[in-house]
């Protein structure tokens, strides 16, 4: 049995870790990942750099990974059937999923970068992939499985849909897509998926 003092210390360590992750995310969202240095992060949370390394021995990569995991949890929640609501038609379900994904990417650009573009210590597409990372993919696959005429290979179709939505998010952020056609692109993708 854990003593009350040990439980309190463990809780304090976890709270400090969460503060570090939240501060890193806030700095990255506000100023970009290049602004997230151990010195700046230590100043933001009012702890010394050794405290940061005590919680994240691998340094910045481990901090970016922690932010990415929080992002995956949030994205999965936003793509869950309960968050998407009870859309009636296949097109409505796919549109709700695509829109929720693109909205998340637009609202959280630095977190999205941590999830998909920066170096992290998360295994993808393997048996070792954390459940929180799989949950977003499972939500995409679940939406496709629930279509009136689901694809024969739901997992592959989910990867293609994920890749398509990710591509739209990345190209939009990079200014590579025509202005004012966001709805048209979403509708084109919905038609490709839901018919």
Automatic annotation (TrEMBL):
Key word Transcription regulation present: yes
The HTH tetR-type domain, residue ranges: 20-66
Domain of life: Bacteria
Pfam families: TetR_C_33, TetR_N
Keywords: DNA-binding, Transcription, Transcription regulation
Signal peptide: none
The keyword Mitochondrion appears for this protein: no
Database matches in PANTHER family: HTH-TYPE TRANSCRIPTIONAL REGULATOR BETI, HTH-TYPE TRANSCRIPTIONAL REGULATOR RUTR
Name of this protein: TetR/AcrR family transcriptional regulator
């Amino acid at each position: 049995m854990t003593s009350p003092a040990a439980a309190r210390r463990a809780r304090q360590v976890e709270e400090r870790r969460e503060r570090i992750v939240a501060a890193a995310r806030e700095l990255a969202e506000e100023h970009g990942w290049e602004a997230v240095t151990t010195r700046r992060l230590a100043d933001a949370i009012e702890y010394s750099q050794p405290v940061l390394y005590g919680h994240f021995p691998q340094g910045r990569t481990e901090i970016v990974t922690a932010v990415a995991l929080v992002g995956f949890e949030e994205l999965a929640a936003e793509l869950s059937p309960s968050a998407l609501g009870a859309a009636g038609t296949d097109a409505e379900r796919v549109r709700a999923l695509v829109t929720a994904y693109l909205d998340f990417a637009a609202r959280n650009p630095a977190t999205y970068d941590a999830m998909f573009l920066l170096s992290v210590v998360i295994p993808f597409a393997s048996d070792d992939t954390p459940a929180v990372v799989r949950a977003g993919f499972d939500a995409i696959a679940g939406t496709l499985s629930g279509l009136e005429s689901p694809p024969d290979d739901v997992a592959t179709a989910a990867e293609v849909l994920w890749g398509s939505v990710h591509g739209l998010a990345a190209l939009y952020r990079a200014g590579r897509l025509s202005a004012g056609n966001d709805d048209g692109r979403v509708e084109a993708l919905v038609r490709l998926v839901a018919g």
